[in-house]
Amino acid sequence: MVSSLRTFLKNIQEEIITIEKEVDPKTQVGDLCSQSDRPLLFKKVKGYPHWKICDLLVKARKTQAIALGTTPDRLLPELARRLRKGPGETRLVEEGPVKEKILMGEKADLTKIPICMHSPKDGGPYIGSGMCVVKDPDTGIQNVAPHRFHVKSESHGAIGVFSPHSWAILRKYEEKKEPAPMAVVIGHHPCYEIATNFHGPHEDFSEHDLAGALLNETVELVKCEFSNIEVPAHAEIVIEGEIPPGVGEDEGPFGEFFNYYGSDVEKRQVFKVKAITMRSDAIYRHLQATGYTDHQSLCALQAEARLYDQLKNKGILVHDIFIPPWGSLFVTIIKLTPQIEEEVKEVLLMTLFSPVFLPFINKIVIAVDEDIDIYDARDIFYSIATRVNPATDVTIISGVLGFPTDCSIPKIPGGVGFLLRSGGKLGINATKPSLFRAEERAKLERIDPKGWGKVFLKDFIK
Length: 462
Known about the structure:
Blueprint: H1 5-11, E1 17-19, H2 29-35, E2 40-42, E3 52-55, H3 61-67, H4 75-85, E4 90-92, E5 101-104, E6 126-127, E7 131-135, E8 142-145, E9 148-151, E10 156-160, H5 164-176, E11 180-186, H6 190-196, H7 207-215, E12 219-223, E13 230-232, E14 237-243, E15 248-251, E16 266-278, E17 283-285, H8 294-313, E18 317-322, E19 331-337, H9 341-352, E20 364-368, H10 377-387, E21 394-402, E22 411-416, E23 419-430, H11 438-442
Parallel strand pairs: 1-2, 3-17, 4-12, 19-20, 20-23
Antiparallel strand pairs: 2-3, 5-16, 6-9, 7-8, 7-11, 9-10, 10-16, 11-14, 12-13, 14-16, 15-16, 18-19, 21-23, 22-23
């Protein structure tokens, strides 16, 4: 069986909350998605008969693990292993489900797709789930990245391109004064989305090749109708278009993943629609930006796995890593057993400056011991409160580059692009004393209540 959004929805059907009541994609879907910790499937969409919308597919560790065919406790080492393998196999096929409907001309209408409003002051509906594909005109290698797409009319949008790799490809077309073909893929198995959010070097392969490695299967691709771009044959929707050279249009505002309007309205590339291909009963994969949603989890997952791999390879006794959605990608929690004190500080510094993250995004790292539940903020703050000496266990680094839309730090005068803001980084050692100091370590052994792990309240409730 070829993996797709539909096969994944079947695999997580016990986790899905199915909404039978009609919902409005412009006024309701955004907040409903922000309220849930489980996958959502909306079966009746106001103004869009026969459409369905899904979201929150991989917000939780359980569904992330299902996507990779493993268990939550093995998720990071397994994902790290597959990423380490490099690209998988792809093959070009003549037809696929994404070609069941081919819409051209006036029929290629963005407003006929139930594209949602994410946040109240957004400039309009946004596609947040688009896996945007461009092809290098010199090498023929494709790049796939998750750019935001501001729908401006039936036939065009303004697109915020934030991937340096995609930027480099688009500049080649700009220099030639030629329109750049782009395809926006919406809705597929989450391994395609995880691969799309990969930030590591991949000059000689595309994220679709990486998706094949994550799935352990050959990825089937079909040609676009109006370009030589190749897209996944089993996707739900593909919007084909081109970016004309030297043309810009206002994009934004847009509620950022950290729940602020972090960037101003700016001139961005214009995307002109040429065709829309889709399944005959396509499901729209929404990816809500604000709240604690898939948006943060998809950006974090590959970084968690790659950082886990880096620390393991250095001999660190690392047990787990979590970049919590409620930390808006700015906070990383590392569970480890410290062998000596100096090792923890090295872990903090390595993580703060690790290349596995989006440029300059990681600004707070907290190291905790093996007895702390890193998925419970109460446990993390317990560790900070009872194991941190602020005089010795806190590392502050100032005068470093910060994330360009982080509103908590000042802009650099004249700064541009990713070199826009100056800030600091914070490392907190909330571990117990190291194994080297066994006697002191033993003093911070947590006390469990009598009967812990042997008696359960549910067994006493009728």
